Amino acid sequence: MLMSPLVFRSGRDRFYVTVWVGTLVLITLSLFAPLLFTPIVYLQLVIVGVIDVLVTGLLIWLVADLKYVLTEEHLLIKGGFIKSRIHYNDITRITRNPGIWAGYRMLFSRDAIEVHYKTGLWGSVIISPEEKEAFIEELKRRNDRIHIEPLEKKL
Question: How far is it, in rounded angstroms, from Cα 112 to Cα 51?
């Protein structure tokens, strides 16, 4: 039976949006700041402006297009030009509420899960699907050998 691809969008929270916007502003300021201390040369201004638009556009594309697609054979994690394919049979376990500051991350929310798998450089990826529990259930349906770690209660 062919399963149609399911697309899960990345969740977004205020913290990540603030950090991302702050990063974009910092990049723009760092590109234009040196021009404040030299005589204005319009060609330099145009070149820096084009570089800023390209870098900002690339970074916005990474998060605006962030999604997790469950195809028939694998999980596709896509953000801009970055794509990762993980076969369902390679997924070993899912951890809820992982540490989000280290490792391979394709997320835009602190409400995340970590997908552990046999292949790949890091062996896991941290993602933040909006519908986290539905996403986990669908992964489990496609590979019933995936171990789902229980939700830890915070003190």
Answer: 33
Q: Rounded to whole angstroms, how far apart are CA atoms 106 and 80?
A: 11
pLDDT digits (tens, 9 = 90+) for 98-154: 887 778 889 888 899 999 999 877 889 999 999 999 999 999 999 999 999 887 655
Q: Provide the H-helix boundaries in the chain.
A: 14-32, 42-64, 132-142
2 — phi, psi (to 5°)?
-80, 130
Given CA atoms 96, 101, 106, 109 in this order, what sign does their dihedral have? positive
Beta bridge partners of 77: 68, 84
pTM as predicted: 0.82
Q: Distance between CA 17 and CA 27 in Å, rounded?
A: 15
Domain ranges of the chain: 86-148
Which residue do the tokens 């997790």 mark? 68
CA distance 109 to 61: 16
Chain segment 47-66, per-residue pLDDT in tens: 999 999 999 999 999 888 89
